[in-house]
Amino acid sequence: MSVPATTTAQPLLTVDQLVVDYPGRGWRQPPVRVLKSISLDIHPGETLGLVGESGSGKTTLGRAILGLAPVTGGEIRLGGQRISNLGKRDRRALSRDVQVVFQDPYTSLNPAMTVGDILTEPLLVTGSSRADAQRRVRDLLDQVRLPADAGTRLAREFSGGQRQRIAIARALTRDPKLVVCDEPVSALDLSTQARVLDLFIEIQERTGVAYLFVTHDLSVVRHISHRVAVMYRGELVETGDAAAVTTAPDHPYTRRLLLAAPVPDPGRQAERRAARHRLAAEQAAVAG
Description:
Elements: E1 13-22, E2 32-42, E3 47-51, H1 58-65, E4 73-78, E5 81-82, H2 88-94, E6 98-101, H3 115-125, H4 130-143, H5 160-171, E7 178-182, H6 190-207, E8 210-215, H7 218-224, E9 227-232, E10 235-241, H8 242-247, H9 252-260, H10 266-287
Helix pairs in contact: 3-4, 5-6, 9-10
């Protein structure tokens, strides 16, 4: 993907020296530092891929932006306005500009509500008339390539890929400026992943929405991102153009991630496994 021209403008989202601590486990245990002075930005119409292994802190960063994780230090700004540690009322108002698509489409949608009710609820709560909300829902269903009668059906009647399309439509109901995508395709099969990723790109090109795309998969990051940020043990270790970071990374940890990605050729896979082990041994020797 080419970097949008808007990246020369003021960032939409700025994370500056962000620190997140979680309470320690057990009585009088010290807090655990999950994020360590994280700084990054996202411009309007841009996708920043945030990649790292499980436990690296990438989901915690997304949750902090959404107001779902405590901010111990530093700050988060949206359009120049500080949004970290907002009160409940201000955070609800912010939901117009910042939305989320969760990992599991099976559990993120209310099984007792029709798709139409799921999509109209946030519009009705914010003062839209039912007629306006229903028109908006029809437009959203068309945007995510779902049939016109989808609004009358329950979410459980759809496949995993279709449910994720419903989740994307829900995130877009109020025309947000930023969508935090937390592993949104990891629960889908490969062919469905490709279709959902293409849908994300198509929607971005049409609306100008920005994405923070959290994933552990470098091939997904390469497909959808303009820039990539790599996290390791709560720190950012590498940031740069998506093509450069996912093909010729500078940091040893990113190179290990790249070598860990599976390839369909058994011979190449064996070579990559051996190279990964050599790199890990070299890093251990340097650390020692």
